[in-house]
């Protein structure tokens, strides 16, 4: 799929190609994290008795409401993760927004399901780091050659 996006100029890879390759890891993290969120959301909506909020919890919505939050965030995370395989800058920006929302939702879910939330928070932090550093630096082309100095006469 990514091979179709590769464009070459005289044998040198363009910055879009390099960025697309660097977005595979955060895309996979978003898809996996989104699927975990969907599973959490479905479990909370279907079987609300499985999850219980501790007494006096400040953000104590109903468990079904938390389930819908996780379900919506999970669907968006998985969709943006799939969209990241295109390497488009808008998908990367949406990825940062969705991962941030997932990070906040799972941080607030920590008292209800600590182990699961900690795992998703870890994935979110890793995905946010990968999205923030995905652009990287592309070496500048040498002046005077169309192929960036790749061919020598």
List keywords for this structure.
disordered N terminus, 5 helices, two-stranded antiparallel ribbon, elongated, single chain, 153 residues, mainly alpha
- Round the Cα radius of gyration to an integer and report it: 20 Å
Which H/E pattern describes the elements?
Answer: EEHHHHH
Q: Percent helix among the residues?
A: 55-70%
Number of helices: 5
Major β-sheet profile: 2 strands, antiparallel
Q: In whole angstroms, how far apart are the ends? A: 35 Å
Structural class: mainly alpha
Brief sketch in words of this structure:
This protein has 153 residues and is mainly alpha-helical. Helix content is 61%, strand content 3%. The chain has five helices and two strands; from the N terminus they run ββααααα.
Task: Describe what this molecule looks like in 3D.
It is a single chain. The protein is mainly alpha-helical. It has a domain at 23-47 and 60-132. Helix content is 61%, strand content 3%. It contains five helices and two strands; from the N terminus they run E-E-H-H-H-H-H. It has helices spanning 15-22, 24-46, 63-84, 89-109, 114-132, and strands spanning 8-9, 12-13. It has a two-stranded antiparallel sheet with strand order 1-2. Helix 2 packs antiparallel against helix 3 (63-84). The protein is elongated and about 45 Å long.
């Amino acid at each position: 799929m990514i091979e179709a996006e590769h464009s070459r100029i005289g044998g040198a890879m363009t910055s879009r190609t390099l960025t697309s390759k660097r977005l595979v890891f955060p895309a996979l993290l978003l898809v996996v994290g989104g699927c975990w969120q969907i599973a959490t959301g479905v479990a909370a909506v279907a079987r609300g008795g499985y999850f219980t909020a501790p007494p006096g919890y400040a953000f104590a919505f109903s468990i079904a409401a938390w389930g819908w939050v996780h379900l919506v965030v999970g669907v968006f995370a998985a969709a943006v993760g799939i969209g990241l395989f295109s390497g488009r800058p808008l998908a990367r920006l949406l990825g940062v927004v969705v991962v941030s929302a997932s990070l906040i939702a799972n941080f607030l879910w920590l008292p209800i399901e600590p182990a699961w939330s900690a795992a998703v928070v870890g994935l979110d932090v890793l995905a946010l780091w990968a999205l923030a550093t995905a652009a990287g630096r592309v070496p500048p082309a040498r002046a005077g050659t169309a192929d960036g100095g790749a061919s020598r006469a």
